[in-house]
Amino acid sequence: MAFVRERWLSRRAVSLHLAVLVFVPGCAVAAWWQIHRAQDGNQLSYLYSVMWPVFGILGLYFWWMLLHTDYETVGLKGMRRQQEAAAADDGGTIAVAPPAPEVPAPVLAVEDPELAAYNARLAELAAKGPKTWRAREKVVVRREQ
Amino acid sequence: MKRLAQRGMPGALFRYQLMANIVGVLIIPLFIFTGLHYAVGGFKIELAIFGVGHGYLYIVYLIAAGFLALKARLHIPWIILMFAAGLVPGLTFLVEWIIVTRKIQPLIAAQEAAGASEAPGVRPAAR
């Protein structure tokens, strides 16, 4: 019973119900409006009067799928939880995620200092991983004159 | 083409990115011609082409974005942002970039770190 309440009456579920209760009648009204415009001779509205019911059906489908998608035990969050639980069971022996392998700076046969600095910079950037808003590149690199 | 039919997260990500770029490109002339239509008048054929084209491809975009969001367990505000981004010129590309770099790539990296075959937490099927 608690399971049913959590699925259908949690805050997330209720906000989903409200959204779908606004969105689907809205699509129905828009479809009706376009059907009337099509009957009045607007050729383009025939195409739009098919589109709006499809939007409504998609809204219903994603409402259903979001209600039946488990956010707590699957996905990134669930994976972290399960790994934490497994680590706690084993006394913390399992690492949550293996650390990224160290990227050694490429050693070249010709040791041009400028090229070496460039390669070191590339290795440094590669070690940082992809650029995101949280991990931005703040340093502006200028070549020494 | 192979990635288009690929199952799992990489395929869903590719389909979403493809549709985001198509829809993001189509919305720009639609807005320009809508503005010209109300400012100058005319442009009915252009409006029909881009309006209907964007409208129907937006449906495909919604499906691609929705499936990616379900697969990655994105939360509802992110899903609304993804859906709305297909309607605002320019925002499509920005939201696509944010979603991919902040949400999907960390998830793919975590899945790969956990071992793709025996990751218990990433079953695609809903309970």
What can you tell me about this protein's structure?
The complex is a heterodimer of chains A (145) and B (127). Chain A has 2 domains: 2-67; 100-137, no CATH class. Helices cover 63% and strands 0% of the residues of chain A. Chain A has 5 helices and no strands. In chain A, α1 packs across α2 (11-39) and α2 runs antiparallel to α3 (44-67). The mean pLDDT of chain A is 78. Chain B is an all-alpha fold. Chain B has 4 helices and no strands. The chains are: A mainly alpha (145), B mainly alpha (127). The A-B interface holds A 12, 15-16, 44, 47-48, 51, 54-55, 58, 61-62, 65-66, 68-71, 73-83, 97-98, 130-134 and B 48, 51-52, 55-56, 59, 62-63, 66, 70, 72-73, 75-76, 79, 98, 101-102, 105-107, 110-111, 113-114, 119-123, 126-127.
Comma- or semicolon-separated keywords:
heterodimer, A: 145 residues, mainly alpha, 2 domains, B: 127 residues, 75% helix, elongated
Helix-strand string of chain A: HHHHH
In whole angstroms, the N-to-C terminal distance of chain B is 31 Å
Gyration radius of chain B (Cα, Å) is 17 Å
Q: Report on the biggest sheet of chain B.
A: none
Overall mean pLDDT score of chain B? 86
Domains of chain B (count): 1
Share of helical residues of chain A? 55-70%
Helix/strand-derived class of chain B? mainly alpha
**How is the biggest beta sheet of chain A arranged?**
none
What percent of residues of chain B adopt helix (DSSP H or I)?
A: over 70%
What is the strand content of chain B?
A: under 5%
Q: Measured on Cα atoms, how large is the radius of gyration of chain A? A: 28 Å
Q: Give the uncertain stretches of chain A in residue-range form.
A: none
Identify the overall geometry of chain B.
Answer: elongated
Largest interface: A-B, 36 and 32 residues
**What is the strand content of chain A?**
under 5%
Helix/strand class of chain A: mainly alpha
Mean pLDDT of chain A: 78
